[in-house]
Amino acid sequence: MEQVYTTVSPSVVNVQVLSYQGTALGSGFVWDAQGHIITNHHVVSGARKITVTFSDGTIADAKLVGSDPNSDLAVLQVDVPSGKLQPVQLADSSQVRVGQLAIAIGNPFGLQGTMTVGIISGLNRELPVGSQFSQNTTYTIPDIIQTDASINPGNSGGVLVDAQGRVIGVTSAIESPVNANAGIGFVIPSAIVQKVAPALIQYGHYDHPWLGINGTMLTPDLVQVMKLQPGQNGVLVVDVTPNSPAQKAGLHGSTHYSNLNGQSMRFGGDVIVAVDDQRVYSFGDLLAYFFNNTQAGQTVKLTVLRQGQQCTIDVTLGVLPTLPGQ
Questions:
Q1: Strand, helix or coil for residue 223
Q2: Catalytic-role residue among 68, 72, 162, 270
Q3: Residues 156, 172, 190, 244: which is the catalytic one?
Q4: What is the DSSP string of 105-160?
Q5: What backbone phi and psi angles, to 5 degrees, belong to 86?
Q6: Residues forming a β-bridge with 102
Q7: Is 310 helix (H, G, I), strand (E, B) or coil?
Q8: Exposed/middle/buried for residue 109 (C-beta within 10 Å: 0-12, 13-18, 19+)
Q9: Quick one: angle between helices 190-203 and 283-293, nearest 10?
Q10: Using an 8 Å Cβ cutoff, are 137 and 155 in contact?
């Protein structure tokens, strides 16, 4: 553990942000020898001045290179001597397993260079972000890693590493009734960082592929009320966003209502059972497939159940829109 800290802590920085609303603290880490620093979008959103402090006390002004609200990642750049820059090594987050050791290093409550230890508590979680296209539609980040390593405000943008000191992902959020560690922390996996960070460095933004639906996993109750085959899996399309690729391709949303277990539920829309012949069982499966295997402008084949009959629909994915100010 001492060796992991000695190796990784010089790569982790304190990020101080001055905005028109006040000041904020977060964490970040050295990405490359060109002075690029990775942190969270929500740490630097609205910043008018950003300062980075290295583990040895070196302080440098940072400029924002690019930011992506829909992966909650941002890239900064600092101009410091090359000897100050120790880029991290990345782990393959697709190989992470529940139960393995997890080590967080960051700056909780501004306490620079704090290390906490836990395990990987869960995989394939979904983390909502603030991008809303209609009253009922929220974008979520797929493949989120859950850990019980202590994460608190100020850890955002820091690292979660494995026993070899390789970065599993970026500590981003917590689930807590008191805005402090309750044993449930959420981490953006390194696979997402590897896709998004180079685009932010080169273009300043990342174009997420966009279908344009709000949906939910089929439940036995929905299967019964829609008179589908028992055990049917898939994603029920609840809403189709106006002027989205889904609407242009003719996907149908749910227009019927039923009272299930005391709750009003919508049903009757298309049920997506596969994308490019890859089965999907939940909305998270759908999100993860699009993020990991597609790009904006690509045409995908959806296998759909419509009123119990299977059909295929070709959809050309668009670019996920963002709201003004994001």
A1: helix
A2: 72
A3: 156
A4: EE-GGG-TTEEEEEEEEEEEEEEEEEEEEETTEEEEEEEEEEE-S---TT-TT-EE
A5: -120, 90
A6: 118
A7: strand
A8: exposed
A9: 50
A10: no
Q: Which residues contact 195 (CB under 8 A, 6 or more apart)?
A: 206, 291
* pLDDT in single tens digits along all 326 residues of the chain: 999 999 999 999 999 999 888 999 999 999 999 999 999 999 999 999 999 999 999 999 999 999 999 999 999 999 999 999 999 999 999 999 999 999 999 999 989 999 999 999 999 898 888 644 444 446 789 999 999 999 999 999 999 999 999 999 999 988 876 676 778 999 999 999 999 999 999 999 999 999 999 999 998 988 988 989 999 999 999 999 999 999 999 999 998 888 877 778 888 899 999 999 999 999 889 999 999 999 999 999 999 999 889 999 999 999 988 754 43
Long-range Cβ contacts of 310-318 (<8 Å, 24+ apart): 310/273, 313/249, 313/250, 313/251, 314/249, 315/211, 315/245, 315/246, 315/248, 315/249, 315/251, 316/245, 316/248, 316/249, 317/209, 317/210, 317/211, 317/245, 317/290, 318/209, 318/210, 318/212, 318/244, 318/245
- Domains, the chain, with CATH or none: 10-84 (2.40.10.10), 93-203 (2.40.10.10), 209-319 (2.30.42.10)
Whole-model pTM: value is 0.88
Q: Which two tokens stand for residue 133?
A: 């296209």
Token duo for residue 317 = 């994915």
Active site residue 156: yes
Q: Tell me, yes or no, if 42 is annotated catalytic.
A: yes
Contact 210, 249 (CB under 8 A): no
Return the pLDDT at 183.
Answer: 84
The per-residue pLDDT for 203 is 95
Q: Which of 42, 67, 71, 285 is catalytic?
A: 42
